[in-house]
Amino acid sequence: MHSLDFVDNFGFLPFRRKQVKANRRGRPGLRPHLSLRFNFGDSILDFHVDSSKGSDFQDPSSYYNFFNLITHAHSDHYGQNNMNNSNAVASVETANILRVLTGKEFKGRCFSVGDSIKLDGIKIKTYPTEHIFGSSAFLIKSDSRILITGDVKDYSKLPKCDVLITEATYGNSDHIFEEEVEKLIECAKNSVFGVYPVGKAQRTAKILIENGFDVCGEDKISNLCSIFDIEVKNLDAEDGDVTLVSPRNVYQYAGRKFILTAQKFYRVPRIVISDHLDFIGILEMIDHCNPEHVIFYHGSPSKSLIDEISDEKKVSLLKDLEKLPG
């Protein structure tokens, strides 16, 4: 479906924002992810999803405003310059994680996941996705119900919608997996686990501590865990039963080590612990939310995934969407 067809069918325009500056190859670039435009007579309102700060574009014939919706605190989602963006919107937990990561205070608007908020007259309800601490989906209630999920681990609390804007990190039929939490616990003693410092480290540490292990980790990991009262000892100061480090650093350690991931490209043995839905989970989420139309705005949906969905629903990819200045 072309972007303009969304205006007629659902009351909003999904589009990609063009970069003002050319990229390194001298071509006009595109800002990450997508934006949604609502037009109310002389009033224009844009929602930029997990993207860089909204532009200062002004149409003299229209009242224009924008908000940046931040689904979670991973670096490919919170966008450039949004720490100082008063129009950025994020959960309290996301703002706290970003404060520790950047050393800056978040200047935008915060909410608790599950809250309802109103932005320029549009009602938005937030929902947990359990991807990482503070990750949130946004249900925009306008002419239609538009659900923006960000990355998803658990879809069970997500609502029905007309348009689902979601991810496909594991959008290939090769990516079907079961988590190996029992293996994680069995292998923990005297092991080094490679974990993403934001999100997976906190979840892993919580599981290990609840099962009686003393956990130590790199500074970044211990600092982020402390936000959520998860006690991870500093790696340089104390020894623990199990050590958590960034995946790129795990190769520096001798002895038994694992990467906690569903990805298959690491040389170190892996234990399947994922913060995403697998291929089957994506399909089940779509059935659960029951949209008329699905937009994949992040990840790489395969032809097999699109074919599975398009028998009953319409599907759009970022490449299908209008490209506008901004």
Q: Would you give an account of this structure?
A:
With 326 residues, the protein is of the alpha/beta class. It has helices spanning 3-10, 92-102, 181-186, 200-210, 219-227, 279-289, 303-310, and strands at residues 13-22, 28-30, 34-40, 43-49, 63-69, 88-91, 109-111, 116-119, 122-128, 136-141, 145-148, 163-168, 191-194, 215-217, 233-234, 242-245, 257-260, 270-271, 293-299, 314-317, 322-325. 20% of the residues lie in helices and 31% in strands. The relative contact order is 0.15. The mean pLDDT is 92.
Strand count: 21
Q: What shape does the CA trace take?
A: globular
Q: How helix-rich are the residues, as a percent range? A: 10-25%
N- to C-terminal separation?
22 Å
What's the structural domain tally? 2
Q: What is the H-and-E element order?
A: HEEEEEEHEEEEEEHEHEHEEEEHEHEE
CATH architecture identity of the largest domain:
4-Layer Sandwich
Number of helices: 7
Helix-strand category? alpha/beta
- Major β-sheet profile: 8 strands, mixed
